[in-house]
Design a protein that fits this description.
This is DUF4352 domain-containing protein. The chain has one helix and 14 strands. The protein has one helix at residues 154-168, and strands at 5-6, 10-12, 19-28, 43-53, 59-63, 68-72, 77-78, 80-81, 89-94, 98-108, 116-120, 123-124, 127-128, 132-136. It has a five-stranded mixed beta sheet. A five-stranded antiparallel beta sheet has the order 2-3-4-10-8, with no helix packed on it.
């Protein structure tokens, strides 16, 4: 059975030796060039998609609009993608031991952002790679004060743990 990656996981591509991709840094954030009028009343967030080449030769990478799909909430509704503020990887040669990162700004109803799925389909040297899926969520309050018990799903706990581990090693 196919299981999604947790946000922060690296996913290697068998068909392209040494190529791996990671969806990470899923966090609430306002876009740098201002909000899109179509996102009025929605909560913005950003997500990074990093492509790393650990192989022996350079690879031409395309990760443009339409190759990243973001779904939110328990029903998997499409998030609003702010193409104007997002930054993609458009025909970039990733040489060995190098990385390229895309930054995507999206928005959705705040109550749906605790469950976010990001699907990525790379184009490598003009060939389509398999689709990969990452699951995570945002909006978990650190140090939240309240009378109720705050409970997180297993995916959120794993995502938080992996994010903390990755950030410790990137000083």
């Amino acid at each position: 059975m196919y299981e999604p990656n947790v946000v922060g996981d690296w996913q290697e591509y068998d068909e392209h030796a040494g190529l791996r991709v990671r969806v990470h840094r899923l966090e609430a954030a306002e876009p740098p060039r201002g909000r899109d009028d179509a996102a009025e009343g929605l909560t913005y967030f950003r997500v990074r998609v990093t492509v790393e080449n650990r192989g022996a030769r350079h690879l031409g990478i395309h990760l443009e609009d339409g190759q990243i799909d973001v779904r939110i909430g328990p029903d998997g509704e499409s998030a609003f993608i702010d193409w104007r503020n997002s930054q993609f990887i458009e025909g970039f040669d990733v040489y060995p031991l190098r990385r390229a990162t895309a930054l995507l700004y999206a928005a959705g109803p705040e109550e749906s952002l605790s469950q976010v799925d990001v699907q990525v389909q790379l184009r490598v040297d003009e060939e389509w790679a398999d689709r990969r899926l990452w699951a995570g969520g945002i909006g978990l309050q650190e140090g939240a004060v309240g009378t109720g018990v705050v409970r997180e799903g297993l995916a959120c706990q794993v995502s938080n743990f992996l994010r903390d581990q990755a950030e410790e090693g990137t000083a």
